[in-house]
Design brief:
Elements lengths: L2 H9 L6 H46 E8 L2 E9 L4 E7 L5 E7 L1 E3 L5 E3 L2 H8 L3 E4 L5 E5 L2 E4 L9 E8 L2 E8 L4 E4 L11
């Protein structure tokens, strides 16, 4: 005789009342409804979380990034939006808590003369480059990472200034034409005639 048969024989003498039987059926039905509601809530939660995860993943996929960069010698958090056409826009809050917007971009020429939009890496190089600013008081400043360099009195008679910027292992050679642009290189000073 198996265990199942032994249990059946032992409990066969017990009789349940009709009301107890109905109560057990109702509890089973209620339990089934609760499980269905719980399952529906779990599925809705998964859909909600999955949807926001997808939106976040699309954001991280290169459309929008949060970056840290140096602005006027201070490290700042900024939101960078890179487009497919080689341009970017950037938003950050300045030291006064005011929202600032800037942008840039461009094209590069291949060896065969064809042009293409700048890549995200090339745009990041542009963003991480030195910046020359002309202040209202007449002073001229170079900003690079945590450095602020006053170059107001360094221009020669041709209104050109050469600035060497050392940042750790990296050295930049910056050529500035007064209110007419600037250029830099990792190897040597760019001659003023070579740009603008």
């Amino acid at each position: 005789m198996t265990n199942h048969e032994k249990y059946k024989k032992a409990f066969s003498v017990l009789q349940t009342s009709e009301s107890s039987f109905r109560e057990v059926k109702n509890m089973a039905r209620l339990q089934k409804r609760t499980k269905m509601k719980t399952a529906a809530a779990v599925i809705a939660g998964c859909i909600l979380l999955g949807g926001t995860g997808t939106a976040y993943a699309a954001n991280v996929g290169g459309i929008q990034r949060t970056i840290q960069l140096w602005i006027h010698g201070d490290q700042t958090n900024a939101t960078l939006n890179v487009s497919d056409n080689g341009t970017y826009t950037m938003e950050y809050y300045d030291e006064n808590g005011e929202l600032q917007e800037s942008g840039g971009g461009g094209i590069a020429f291949e060896a065969d003369g064809t042009q293409r939009s700048l890549t995200a890496e090339e745009l990041m190089e542009e963003i991480d480059s030195p910046d020359v600013e002309y202040e209202e008081d007449g002073s001229v400043w170079v900003y690079y990472h945590n450095q602020s360099i006053d170059i107001t009195n360094k221009f020669n008679d041709n209104k050109v200034c050469f600035v060497k910027i050392a940042d750790g292992d990296k050295t930049l050679y910056l050529t500035v034409k007064y209110q007419n642009g600037f250029s830099y290189s990792n190897e040597k000073y760019v001659e003023p005639e070579e740009f603008n």
